[in-house]
């Protein structure tokens, strides 16, 4: 399994802000680091997030709800999700309307990791 690094996510965030606008900057490096490391979490030597979809869900859940960046957290979460799946040879196939709607849903209704993972799985090849 390949994981994203903090530097990669910061670079993706910069690209998102340059392309779509918004305020640059990291609100909390600790929250950013926590979000990036969450998919790797273990307990007793076992992965807390077993599947790639669980790991992807943990990543975007944390990026959206922890608000580690000043602006563009949901957009950065999407780009991070797509990149994480891509480097692990999984193709994400949701359209823009579905993505915007679901990412707003994550922010507002705070679904479980399992529900987010199921949504991601349904939109992958």
UniProtKB/TrEMBL annotation:
Organism for this UniProt entry: Candidatus Roizmanbacteria bacterium RIFCSPHIGHO2_01_FULL_39_12b
One Pfam match: Fic
Coiled coil: none
GO molecular function, one term: kinase activity
PROSITE patterns: FIDO
Gene3D superfamilies: Fic/DOC protein, Fido domain
Fido domain location: 4-122
Domain of life: Bacteria
UniProt protein name: Fido domain-containing protein
InterPro entries in UniProt: Doc, Fido, Fido-like_dom_sf, Type_II_TA_Toxin
């Amino acid at each position: 399994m390949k994981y994203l690094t903090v530097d990669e996510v910061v670079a993706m965030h910069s690209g998102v802000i340059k392309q779509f606008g918004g305020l640059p900057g990291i609100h909390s490096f600790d929250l950013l680091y926590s979000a990036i490391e969450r998919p790797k979490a273990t307990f007793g030597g076992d992965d807390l997030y077993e599947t790639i979809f669980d790991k992807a869900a943990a990543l975007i859940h944390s990026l959206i709800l922890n608000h580690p960046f000043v602006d563009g957290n949901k957009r950065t979460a999407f780009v991070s999700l797509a990149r994480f799946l891509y480097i692990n040879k999984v193709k994400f196939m949701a359209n823009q309307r579905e993505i915007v709607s679901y990412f707003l849903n994550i922010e507002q209704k705070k679904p479980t990791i399992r529900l987010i993972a199921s949504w991601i799985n349904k939109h992958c090849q």
